[in-house]
Amino acid sequence: QVQLVESGGGLVQPGGSLRLSCAGSGILLSINFLDWYRQAPGYKREWVATIDKGGITNYPDSVKGRFTISRDNAKNTVYLEMNSLKPEDTAVYYCKCGPDWGQGTQVTVSS
Known about the structure:
0% of the residues lie in helices and 50% in strands. By secondary structure, the protein is an all-beta fold.
């Protein structure tokens, strides 16, 4: 059974940083594409980062230069490092691997 568990969300001031984690079980994240998405209240779920099997990363313009996705194969975990956070980054953040989604972790950017 595949399980993805996100952690690391919380409340942070504008300009601050957070690192989200997505721990996988029942699946090897090292040989799969892994995506991070986010969803703010009243908005559609939005893609924010991808890392492929070779470690190539991709981001939308809205987070490029501020967010970094990375992977620790030994821990079967993928991370999303978020810097220079803005209030508009407030959302529930989800990791996705193939058809499987995690339960999400709340990120709130507010002073």
